[in-house]
Prior knowledge:
Largest sheet: 7 strands, mixed, barrel
Structural class: alpha/beta
Shape: globular
Oligomer: single chain
Strand order of the largest sheet: 9-10-12-15-14-13-11
Helix content: 25-40%
Low-confidence stretches: 278-304
Radius of gyration: 29 Å
Amino acid sequence: xxxxxxxxxxxxxxxxxxxxxxxxxxxxxxxxxxxxxxxxxxxxxxxxxxxxxxxxxxxxxxxxxxxxxxxxxxxxxxxxxxxxxxxxxxxxxxxxxxxxxxxxxxxxxxxxxxxxxxxxxxxxxxxxxxxxxxxxxxxxxxxxxxxxxxxxxxxxxxxxxxxxxxxxxxxxxxxxxxxxxxxxxxxxxxxxxxxxxxxxxxxxxxxxxxxxxxxxxxxxxxxxxxxxxxxxxxxxxxxxxxxxxxxxxxxxxxxxxxxxxxxxxxxxxxxxxxxxxxxxxxxxxxxxxxxxxxxxxxxxxxxxxxxxxxxxxxxxxxxxxxxxxxxxxxxxxxxxxxxxxxxxxxxxxxxxxxxxxxxxxxxxxxxxxxxxxxxxxxxxxxxxxxxxxxxxxxxxxxxxxxxxxxxxxxxxxxxxxxxxxxxxxxxxxxxxxxxxxxxxxxxxxxxxxxxxxxxxxxxxxxxxxxxxxxxxxxxxxxxxxxxxxxxxxxxxxxxxxxxxxxxxxxxxxxxx
Length: 512
């Protein structure tokens, strides 16, 4: 989970604070001290996480792009300059741009906003931004909520009493609410001094940057591991009395399964799993993810020449093309697998399934799975020509007939290719063409897969332009008509996207 640190360098951050009654420091100096403490902690415990540093006043500037070099981040902090007034909205726009350019809109990100709680003055101030939220056009929308999952932590170089004397705290709380309320506002306790700022950043570290240590077990083998980022508690909404579920520190591998059988399962989150103690000899045959940990002074020395099960597991999963099913807690499972970052480097990853005994319907209950050796016959066949999955229900339900399900990409590709084959045989295959087209249309509408309708419409239009001169004129009319109806359905308009509606062939008359 990458982190963006956003540092306020406006003039209000240069306000002096008295330390020990003699030496004077600026609020900016306290902020830099706190951030150095955070970076030192991340350099020791979160070396594989990417962090970027931004500065802002009325404008924003990316000082250090996403990096794992915490020395570069600390050097940039030591050379900060002072600028003009505070404009938080400008900084948030900058965060949105930087994160989307580097990670897209699917990667969760943590944003640490360091400021003195000053809202700015006049137009561009946070107060003005929040007051004008409902009077904006689409081209000037407020940047929150971000288009990617976010945790926003606001670090105030001020105490709560100072912020409550004005409406600063109310505006910061509204800012947190707009971001999705996933985060927290931190203030300094007592006088503004080095000890107070250390305490405040220590609370942030405990909440968001404390490492997750666990023990990975497989039979008689085990390995101490560290999981990045720290798994968050999960609350299941459908429970009568929802209780947060946390990942156990004892991770038990319950079995192995082929990647083709696990397919692309729905997961809650993905995490990087690293062995805590590795050495160069072990790493050369194991995961590239540990390359960057070779310089750890204590871990590498503690490992000595002893082999590491975590590295062995990663290499085995990578070579055999399998995943390991791992138990995270009571009726909660996940999977361990090898994921390549590049051609030469791969990592051991852990994905968390939704809590429950049957997170993947096509596998059935995880507790009912067992080793092949216990089966009367090999469920995969003698030559691996078949698979026991998906598990068929014992009773064939009448309403489960002829349902289109796309578990694998190959199934969707087959259905699209079937439509195109019939399209090239129009008008002889008109009825079959529209039958397959309507089947795909209904499935796409049921899944909310609007992009599929638009994509197939584009394919039909392309087929229309590629018709040979000898083609029947009715073919072009039918292809254009079908493409137009799919485009109308892809808009989601209830007039054209009704589930029970079928696209009928276009009536033409070429008898003359």
